[in-house]
Amino acid sequence: MQQENKVYLSLLYDFYKDFLTERQKKIIELYVNEDLTLGEISKELGISRQGVFDAFRKAKIALKRYEAKLKLADKYYKNRSIIEEVLQKLRRIYERYKDEEIMSIINSIQEWQEDV
Fold this sequence. Notes:
By secondary structure, the protein is mostly helical. It folds into 2 domains: 3-70, Winged helix-like DNA-binding domain superfamily/Winged helix DNA-binding domain (Arc Repressor Mutant, subunit A), CATH 1.10.10; 74-115. 84% of the residues lie in helices and 0% in strands. Helix 1 runs antiparallel to helix 2 (22-32), helix 1 crosses helix 4 (49-70) and helix 5 (72-97) packs antiparallel against helix 6. The radius of gyration is 20 Å and the shape is elongated. The model has no long low-confidence stretch (mean pLDDT 95). It holds the Pfam family UPF0122. InterPro entries: RNA_pol_sigma_r3/r4-like, UPF0122, UPF0122_fam_protein, WH-like_DNA-bd_sf. It comes from Caldicellulosiruptor bescii. Belongs to the UPF0122 family.
């Protein structure tokens, strides 16, 4: 799986993990957060590679199904894009007027982004 897809899978997992089984959660966590291969996960959990593959596949399908219905990741990406546009416009305004209140707003938004 490409790194880009892993990031997306991680985002879906963050939004929808409560809908997965405990085994699916553990497999996704090891795959995404620990960067283990399915073979390594198999050894770690003491289950067959096929069992890991099946649980992983079912978890991905479930996460994508929830996203198709709820669209939380899609909304997240759209909101981040809008926030970036607002920040760019605020930076241009700041460069023009050098208003410290605008810079304070920019800094507040950036701090908020880091927490989200």
